[in-house]
Amino acid sequence: xxxxxxxxxxxxxxxxxxxxxxxxxxxxxxxxxxxxxxxxxxxxxxxxxxxxxxxxxxxxxxxxxxxxxxxxxxxxxxxxxxxxxxxxxxxxxxxxxxxxxxxxxxxxxxxxxxxxxxxxxxxxxxxxxxxxxxxxxxxxxxxxxxxxxxxxxxxxxxxxxxxxxxxxxxxxxxxxxxxxxxxxxxxxxxxxxxxxxxxxxxxxxxxxxxxxxxxxxxxxxxxxxxxxxxxxxxxxxxxxxxxxxxxxxxxxxxxxxxxxxxxxxxxxxxxxxxxxxxxxxxxxxxxxxxxxxxxxxxxxxxxxxxxxxxxxxxxxxxxxxxxx
Amino acid sequence: xxxxxxxxxxxxxxxxxxxxxxxxxxxxxxxxxxxxxxxxxxxxxxxxxxxxxxxxxxxxxxxxxxxxxxxxxxxxxxxxxxxxxxxxxxxxxxxxxxxxxxxxx
Lengths: 324, 105
Known about the structure:
Order of helices and strands of chain B: EEHEH
Number of domains of chain A: 1
Oligomer: heterodimer
Shape of chain A: globular
CATH architecture of the largest domain in chain B: Roll
CATH topology of the largest domain in chain B: Ubiquitin-like (UB roll)
Strand order of the largest sheet of chain B: 2-1-3
């Protein structure tokens, strides 16, 4: 297939919107999870586990930066993406924004397992992305993610050996699992992509998108449409549904092998698939559609506090452009 | 449980002791060591060894190298001023470089 997605300046409005939506969901997940992980610094159960999680947090921040940088070619810079963005315009899953249950290492470990297992699958589906800057980033990110997944699995196995550890894991699983399912929800296209570009043929859709964003229904439609585009344009080579089913077929048996009860309804087992993500099993806030728990808005306030306090107008950059 | 960690910078070189990690078992020890001792300096391989498994013998237990004073072998006390001492200076600096290269200081 000759790649139609070589030069971002030639993108149609739809292509641009698909790319921006995809990259935001990727980058926002990594960015917000890293923010949460850093809360464990100097509080983890041992020096070693502290350093290991700090290492993972730093990796995730680096990955967020790699993803956000993809949008630099669309003239969206890091300042706009992190410090100047409406927190309701973030597209991360609610799994990554929830505060950790006080001092609960089981929460940190389980969350990282649920997330890293999903990330592994979605990176695989980006390896052959039609947009080269995406495909180019996968190798570096995956090599670091292997450590994260291994780290999480090792901890889970050990915590699950004792009764107290297993009880804590079960509590965390009951709390986190519905939120983990939002990882596979389609994301509502970000608001700023609705700004018309010079592309004339896409203008109908842009208007439809801006005019109707007030209603939930049209948001959901727009999300489904842009998700369809992400796959049709070859930005990602698997659908969210496929990723969700595959993820369930990996994490459910693993967690069950640790004697944990996965809160998934037997009725979600469909034809030909073992499990599927259904509406009933999802939490009220999905994250991907811009609805978030209060915890996210508090966290956003925290992480932009210094920037606002010091009246900054720029985000500091200490690394060069990864594409150069 | 404490695991002593040995780092090898490049294939073929010796593994050199570089610190330790606390970990409940070998798998976790390897994982922690990778972050704690393999992240900052160039690393080709790490060994983790349970501290209890390390055998130690000290100068209190045995007279290393016998009882003869061999300090004369360490020719580091010659006068190094004056033009005729340049060879001594070179030789000493070569020795210092070699020691540094082995990680002796």
